[in-house]
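Q: My hope is that you can spare some time for a protein that puzzles me. Underneath my words sits a plain record pairing an amino acid chain with its backbone structure tokens. Those tokens are not coordinates but codes from a learned vocabulary of shapes. Thank you; the sequence and its tokens follow:
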Amino acid sequence: METTVIEILTSFIRVVQVVPNSYGVLILGRLMTGLGFGCVYIATNLYVAECAPRLLRGSFVGTVSQFGYQLGTLIAFWAGYGMSFHSSPFNIAWRISNIIQIPIGLAFVVISFWYPESPRYLLEKGKPVRALKNLAKIRSGDPESDRVQEEFHEIVASYEYRKRYDPGYLGLLRTSGMRKRLLYGFYATALQQFGGIAALTMYATLIYKSLGWDAGHQALAINGIQSVLQLFIVLVNTFTVDRYGRKQLLIWGFAIQSLALLILSSLTTSFPDNTNKAAAVVEIAMFFIVGLTYCWSNGPIAPAIASEIFPTHVRDKAFSLSLLGQTACLLALTQPWPRFNEEVGPKSYWLLFSLNVVALISVIFILPETKGISLERMDKLFGQVDAVEAGEHDAAGETGKLEEKALGGAVGAERRSDSLGEEDGEKGVGAREVEVASEKV
């Protein structure tokens, strides 16, 4: 329900962004759009993480997050390419680029009414029966099946143990284990932007022009082609992240990006005036490799890690705070980049190469692997008490009662539904018999 409300507000904000005739209203619309996007991004990643199966969680979160982002950039880049041919009136281009976001937002509003609520969220709100029913639904099982019962038991045991802890922001700072997790959250989201991908994406057309690709609308077309490739390369993450692990994919990703940027930096330093056409082609290829690699490595993996390492009672707050790592790197690299690139020139890409090497080394020595660990069992990875085992030991009675209550309510509801269905069926048969008899008469 919260996601639906956010989508409605975001769609309304986009309208505000399209209609202004003054700079102030435009800025207000942009600020409100950013706020709406931030809320949707947080809610979506948390929702998918809490509903996804344990062995496919990285794939689900990473694909939804990155595929959605890449689809948006594809639409934006090609809209920019199309409107680059439009010159009069001058203020139509940016309005159309914003208008096309409205039907997409409204479509998500409509779809969101069919989202089943997260079972973990329902249990936190004191609705165990609905929690079990929804868990059975999203696992394509029934409340009495072993796999559903096993997962529900972990959720309930963890919930009973965690009830003693503060669910507010201060709860994130009370224990060393939680502070450690928060630092890992900052670190994980920072990895997404640490290599400078945002600078390369935001200023791609300017970069391509600086490398000699400035004939007509050539730079915009290259941007658009890259966005199409990036959309589909996300599927590499979909089929590999839960097989090889988050850490392994990040190591491969940063290694490939580092190598591509090493080649790029060497070429731009050797041919600063873009006099060698073959070198310019290789430079563009290296840009493509960096962008494509990002889309299956640090792009989707960062939100997957940050959304799964925190316990349920503070997951929303901890994840939102963790995104400060992403924002800090984003601002630190994108804001000064145009001036830095202008003053340093072709050698500026050595900075991005160095940052990717640093990121690679840090992943090897710092990042823990979270593949295959359930959300409720994540505590042990960070040196804390296993909440499931503690709940089974310290609150066994309460855990058992809550599971029995949920199972009784869910099974009872199913039986009543089946009974009503049978009664309706019998009524239907009777009505048909009367209808046939009347026809004979």
In short: The longest helix spans residues 396-440. Residues 17 and 165 are 42 Å apart (CA to CA).
